[in-house]
Amino acid sequence: MVDVNLLSGIGIFAELKPESLQKLAEYIELKNFYEGDVIFKQGDKGEELFVLKEGECEVQVDIGTDRKLSVQIMEPGTIFGELSFIDGKERTGTVICKKDAKVLILKRSDFDKFMKEDKEAGSKMAMNIAKMIAEKLRDTDKKFREYYLKATISMLKGIGVL
Question: Range of 83's domain?
Answer without folding.
Answer: 4-158
